[in-house]
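note to self — DONT lose this again. spent like an hour looking for the file last time. sequence + predicted structure for the chain T wanted, 121 res
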Amino acid sequence: MPVLTPETEARLISVATSVGKTPDEVVQALLRDLPTAALSESELLRRIQEAIPPSLRQEREVLITAQKARAWSASERARFLELTNQIETCEADRILLLSALARQRGITLPEIARQLELMPA
């Protein structure tokens, strides 16, 4: 099993302490970000634009419309919660992609969101 050098371990502890995290949390964040770090800017932009499949939004909207007309069945309620969880996961993934793009451009997350017109200037 690989072992960190004392210098690397000290640096990891220092970085973790400076951001108020444990060394394990810092490593987990780095591992989570690895898949997006190697993506090109154009691939990041493509994935950001298609973050939530239209079919998920449409199915959720159908359920919302149905709920306004009548009470949901147990299966409709369960499906709505499942769709909501999937959409939230897509949004979280989108934030990771935005963060990776911001890192590539050397700017902050709010700055990249403004550049892509995802939030007001």
